[in-house]
Design a protein that fits this description.
The structure is a single chain. With about 500 residues, this protein is α/β, with parallel strands linked by helices. It has 18 helices and 24 strands. It has a 6-stranded parallel beta sheet with strand order 2-9-1-10-11-12, sandwiched between helices. A 6-stranded mixed beta sheet has the order 15-13-16-18-24-23, sandwiched between helices. A 4-stranded mixed beta sheet has the order 3-6-7-8. Helix 1 runs parallel beside helix 2 (about 60-65). The longest helix has 22 residues, at about 120-140. The protein is globular, with a radius of gyration of 24 Å. The two termini are about 15 Å apart.
């Protein structure tokens, strides 16, 4: 039976819309439907490459995986990738079309404002038409479409320009479910205010409320649930408890604030240098969960020199972050760690920084045209307007591995993975999702006389022996297991019968 499209809208950012959307994609798949995710416009530095070599937000790729379908740019037709506090690269249908300042993007003309430039006139019509057309194509192929809003639905100053929240729901004919985060407090004000501030037309679209991230005994919110329903005139479909034991890849940089930040005795300490414009930090999810490893994020030169493995991650602005590394002392700390025999790994922009030079003669990234790299890898990199986006396979230690590339810039080497003593560089995101790569790094950290080994010889021997043991599950099998656990968690606390009635037009 056909279901209406469903939109998960939020009382604010980071309330859990993406995770609930992921759960519902898996639940609908389990229940025999053929769902697909959709987010008209996304802003994120964590992105992914579709099978046909185009770029979308990471969250929609995760949701597609939970739904059991290949990801496609129609699932996220418009992606904004911040380059600074004021500008973002605009990616439309998987390809960059230029950069825009936040003011220009959000102040395109509306029916109530003059058309200042021909470009604004074109873009106002163009972006809305493109995202709506993408939804229509997706809706013709899948059922139901699990739509995700962005941020808060009650930003009144942005209402006329909104491409992703209730205007998109109106186009789709979607039933809107409002998600609120009780863990941050103020749940009554945020839920009631989000509904009360809508136009009468848009209030009619909101068919249910989900209270997310509840801690403690759920019975304590029974009265609160009843009060919310009376206050808002909208049913509360579920109260979903907070969880710590289900692992779903996160897209929002807000998640970085919750990451570990300290060295730890008795494990291989892996320091990820926390760049100002860090991208695709999901590259480290597998390594972070390895029981042999303590992975942490830092800008402390002392921590970098004491770590066993130092990783320079991807970045949206290689030259700006390279300059900052020299300013804050991290560059010298990385070189010092390398001289002491620590393992240095560079991925994407981090790989470029480890080379001999990075040049940007066309000003692709900004005003810095040339900088010397850290000199640990024999490559020169030149920024180019053309962006490389592709899924790749590669061989590492005799094993076939896979990943994907998203980068602007060309380096003068044909090697997918470039190695020198104690240093590895690659453009491949997902490089560390491959067990042979992780095992190689952990073995090398022991053989090179790592800090952990000096602290505990027995621990080092145990690490060395365990490094050769394959994981119980492949990473793909592990992710499938986590999607099922998430679906069970959400299904157990959400009134699915009532939700299905709403989506069939009966509720």
């Amino acid at each position: 039976m056909s279901l209406h499209p469903l939109m998960l809208a939020g009382t604010g950012s980071d309330v859990g819309k993406s995770v609930v959307a992921t759960a519902l994609c898996r639940i609908f798949r389990q229940d025999g439907y053929h769902p697909a995710p959709f987010k008209a416009q996304n802003m994120a530095l964590n992105s992914y490459v579709t099978p046909d070599g185009l770029e979308i937000g990471r969250a929609q790729a995760v949701q597609a995986e939970a739904a059991g379908v290949d990801c496609h740019t129609d699932m996220n037709p418009l992606l904004l990738k911040p380059q600074s506090d004021h500008t973002s690269q605009v990616v439309l249908h998987g390809r960059p079309i230029g950069s825009r300042s936040a003011y220009d993007f959000w102040n395109s003309p509306t029916p109530h404002q003059p058309l200042h430039t021909a470009r604004q006139r074109r873009e106002t019509i163009y972006f809305r038409r493109e995202v709506c057309d993408a939804f229509d194509r997706l809706n013709a192929r899948y059922n139901p479409i699990v739509m995700e809003g962005a941020g808060s639905i009650s930003e009144l100053n942005l209402r006329d320009h909104d491409l992703v929240n209730l205007p998109m729901a109106r186009h789709a004919g979607a039933d809107v479910i409002l998600v609120g985060d009780i863990d941050r407090g103020g749940i009554f004000a945020s839920v009631y205010g989000s509904i009360a501030l809508q136009t009468e037309q848009d209030r009619q679209l909101i068919k249910g409320i989900i209270i997310n991230k509840f801690r403690g005994d759920l019975r304590l919110f029974d009265d609160g649930r009843r009060m919310l329903e009376e206050l808002c005139g909208v049913p509360v479909l579920g109260v979903i408890p907070y969880y710590n034991d289900i692992h779903i890849e996160e897209e929002d940089s807000v998640a970085l604030a919750r990451k570990h930040r300290r060295l730890q005795e008795g494990k291989v300490n892996v320091a990820v240098v926390l760049l100002r414009h860090i991208s695709n930090f999901t590259d480290f999810d597998v390594l972070e969960r390895d029981p042999r490893v303590n992975l942490f994020y830092t800008t402390s030169p002392t921590d970098i020199t004491q770590a066993d493995i130092v990783i320079l991650p991807g970045t949206k602005t290689t030259l700006d972050d390279l300059l900052e590394l020299r300013r804050n002392g991290c560059a010298e700390a990385i070189l010092s760690a390398h001289r002491q025999g620590r393992i240095i790994v560079g991925i994407c922009g981090g790989y470029q920084m480890l080379g001999l030079t990075v040049s940007d003669p066309q000003g692709i990234e900004g005003t810095i045209t040339h900088l010397p790299g850290l000199g640990l890898l024999p490559i020169h990199t030149t920024m180019t307007a053309e962006k490389t986006t592709r899924q790749v396979t590669f061989t590492f230690d005799g094993y076939e591995c896979c990943g994907y590339e998203i980068h602007q810039g060309v380096s003068d080497t044909a090697e997918a993975v470039l190695q020198t003593p104690h240093c590895i560089g690659t453009y491949i995101h997902g490089f560390l999702d491959n067990a042979p790569v992780i095992d190689h790094l952990l073995k090398q950290s022991v053989l090179c006389g790592s800090a952990a080994e000096r602290k505990s010889g027995s621990a080092a021997e145990q690490k060395s022996g365990s490094a050769a043991e394959p994981p119980a599950l492949s990473y793909q099998a592990y992710k499938d297991q986590q999607y099922d656990l998430l679906a069970d968690h959400v299904r157990g606390h959400l009134d699915m019968e009532r939700l299905y009635n709403i989506l069939r037009g009966d509720g």
